[in-house]
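Box S2. Input/output pair 1.
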Amino acid sequence: CLHCIIGEDRNTFLGHIYNSLVENGVFFVSSLCAKDSNSYEITKNDHVYRHVSSQQSLITELEQSGFRVVTANVYERDEINHITIHAVKVVYS
């Protein structure tokens, strides 16, 4: 669940995933997703413990990390939506 990875750890995590995959390797993402275009963080006891991206910001984050998004499905929920994304590693020459 990508929403559990916070701050700069997200870039590190996505870099490790990218480097672990072969060209066209599949990365399946499951995450909480904002109901609008605003990403935000959830805190508990004054500590950030969830990052809730908007659909577009999550797709942009994946693309900037070298992935091509094949499909993105948002599932409407009462408070926070859920998103699944099928992405593949792109190798640029």
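Box S3. Input/output pair 2.
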Amino acid sequence: GQYHATSKYEIEDMLSKVGLAQKMSSYAINLSGGQRRKLSVACAFIGNNKTVFLDEPSSGLDPSARRELWDFLKDMRHGRTILLT
């Protein structure tokens, strides 16, 4: 595989895209269930992966957060394969 050093900018950008920029210095254990779900989705896209597998990414999200997540996924699909289960 190829080694990719993740920059602080890349992490901040991804957290901003999923609505977690204000939680940058928080531990995952202190996030709500929906915020943890967003964090796991954001982590899947770090490193510009060409193929991303997501298992029920909107499970446990309220309707507003679910819509935001699906909009994020639509934005991130360009140049990638996203497999949803």
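Caption for Box S3: The longest strand covers residues 51-54. Residues 8-84 form a domain with the Rossmann fold fold (CATH 3.40.50.300).
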